[in-house]
Amino acid sequence: MLVIGGGLAGLSSAVALADAGFHVRLFEKRPHLGGRATSYTLPDGSEVDNCQHVTLGCCTNLADFYRRAGANAKVRFYDRLYFADRAGKRSTIEASALPSPLHMAPSFLRFGALKFSDKHAIAGALLAIARSGGSPPEIAGVSMLDWLRRMKQTDGAIERFWRVVLVSALDEELARTDAHYGIDVFWKAFLANRAGYRVGIPSVPLANLYAGCREAIAGRGGEVNLRAGIREIRLCEGHFKSVVTDDASEITADLCIAAVPHELLLELAPWQLSEPGGPLGQVRQIRTSPITGVHFWFDRTVMAEPFLTLLDHTTQWIFNKTMLYGGESKRGDDASQSVYGQRTQYLQLVISASYDLVSRSRQEIIDLCRRELLDVLPATRDAKLEKATVIKEVHATFSPEPGVDARRPAQDIGVKNFFLAGDWTQTGWPATMEGAVRSGYLAAEAALAACGRPQKLLQPDLPFEGLSKRWAHRAAARRP
Ligand SMILES: Cc1cc2nc3c(=O)[nH]c(=O)nc-3n(C[C@H](O)[C@H](O)[C@H](O)COP(=O)(O)OP(=O)(O)OC[C@H]3O[C@@H](n4cnc5c(N)ncnc54)[C@H](O)[C@@H]3O)c2cc1C
User: Fold this and answer.
1) Which atom of ligand 1 is nearest to the CA of 264?
2) Does residue 350 register a pLDDT over 90?
3) CATH homologous superfamily, domain 2-59+205-284+403-450
């Protein structure tokens, strides 16, 4: 079996097929595995993530993949979420002992950054989501912003609550987000199950998570080929025939999973597939949105929390990489000294849907972020910025705009022995690591069925709990 692409979609399908006893040959164009969710070494020797990646408790397939890859111990889950407003004032959100969907209510009521009128409006909308089991009526084709207006949300609620959570979760502005995706985030992460919101953050650079994948594939006699791009996929009479590598070798196989980004698949696959009316006919219309990551190395400790979500700023998240990598133990600076050789702190800032930054220079972005840090991390005023890196991913993820689902093809497009994977294929999920792994498992399930060895790989969602469970069952019974 051939797998093209060593991102999470390709890796998850390859490892699942290897675990099922198949000999898998994986071809990845770049020198490392992980695709967009990877890390690499800068010329000065520091290893940086392409961008900070976080998972949530509700990402059950990604958790299964990390387990298969032997990486689950390298992802640490946090129960408390930290927020800072324009004045730097902190608020936290965490689950209480109350049952779902009320488990977050006590910390939500205490949340200092929202007025009573904002909280009242938010509670009404969250209740509507919970009572409908995550599927409120008449949201087809509606943007999240339109749905929030329909639910009479205040400007404060939209800016300081809905936008804060959703723009970073979905990498898109509320006006360009399908309401179904926005509502799903709140249902799965905050309402359906008490553990859904827990934030999982790798304690190692991202590329270190995938070493076990190589072992799983090689252990079954398969191979992982790096710097091995595929330049053409050949079909013959409606079934898969072969691929042509960048060095012009033709490789045949009984079966192929193509797990490359959508715009690249259109370059590799026969043009007939992307003709109007063809199985990839609408893929060209899937749009993308940008994410900007900013890496700062300070000469001293400037941040005490492991991560911080910012309200009222362009910067959305700050990750304390020194602490997340275990560089700061209870002994504080002593430990960071041992990791970096001096008392430094490495922070990573993330700005999703960063349309306004795409045309800005590196220095402009650094200056903007440094100004914002003064509001929330005053210790940065006297700290020396020893080094800074800006990584702009202009086409970071597909945009979850209204109607995008109709353009996303299934993993099985009706070409015999040829399957698709990738976060952009039909998974029901937005462009996330969980979506990529779901696509990989679905493609592998289709491949196993084609070999006459059907097997279920897709993991169930977290179970509904408490009142959410009762409401979800009632809502399902009412649906036609
Ligand atoms: C900046 C940024 C931040 C993000 N943050 C998060 C986050 O916090 N949480 C989250 O869940 N998700 C996040 N995502 C989304 C997540 O990274 C993606 O959804 C996921 O990694 C996509 O995996 P994939 O395998 O579908 O695609 P990719 O990761 O793009 O993998 C495709 C692979 O195919 C290879 N390839 C391409 N062409 C060829 C060819 N011709 N031959 C061989 N190989 C080829 C590529 O090199 C690549 O390795 C983020 C994405 C970005 C860009």
Assistant:
1) 38
2) yes
3) FAD/NAD(P)-binding domain (3.50.50.60)
